[in-house]
Amino acid sequence: MIRKAEERDIQGLMSLLHQVNAVHHHIRPDLFKGDTTKYSEQELAELIRDDRNPIFVYDDGKILGHAFCQLTEVSNHPLLQDAKTLYIDDICVDEQARGRHVGQALYHYVRDYAKSIGCHNITLNVWEGNDAAISFYCNMGMQVQKTGMEVILD
């Protein structure tokens, strides 16, 4: 049920990207515009063809979830150890499919993929206030790596 995204998945991905943006807009309307998506259909088509940024979909006859990933590598850095990291840019489960372990299946698939290509770790960011996502990732065994902070200057 989980596979790499194909161009035929773009409409399903767009629907999920709208849901992701709605969550972010609800949490931080000062940063996120409403009723839009992170990528256009054309940008999605380009991403789907990019092997360094794999997109995985949970396909049950309908796209019920996605995981957008980005592969990064540090090599010969003066401070940092050499490491390959898979960054999860976005995991989304269709709101109609929540509670059916789609997110868990996607996360485990991504984890197995990262292991298979020799990654040292998986990283991601979660917006403060997205308590459901924070709880989910903690339940998947993830731990806080670093904390981003801000002050709003209005």
Commentary on this structure:
The protein is an alpha+beta fold and 154 residues long. The chain is 32% helix and 23% strand. It contains 4 helices and 5 strands; from the N terminus they run βααβββαβα. The protein has a 5-stranded mixed sheet. The protein is globular, with a radius of gyration of 16 Å. The mean pLDDT is 96.
Report the mean per-residue pLDDT as an integer.
96
- Count of individual helical segments: 4
The count of β-strands is 5
* Category from helices, strands and their pairing: alpha+beta
Order of strands, widest sheet: 1-2-3-4-5
Main sheet makeup: 5 strands, mixed
Taken in chain order, the helices and strands follow as: EHHEEEHEH
Give the overall form.
globular
- The helical percent reads 25-40%
- Poorly predicted spans: none
**Rg over C-alpha atoms, rounded to the nearest angstrom:** 16 Å
Percent of residues in beta strands?
15-25%
Distance between the termini: 47 Å
Put the structure in a nutshell.
With 154 residues, the chain is of the alpha+beta class.
Which helices and strands, and how do they pair?
Layout: E1 2-4, H1 10-27, H2 41-48, E2 55-59, E3 63-74, E4 83-93, H3 102-116, E5 121-124, H4 131-139
Parallel strand pairs: 4-5
Antiparallel strand pairs: 1-2, 2-3, 3-4
List keywords for this structure.
154 residues; alpha+beta; 5 strands; 32% helix; globular
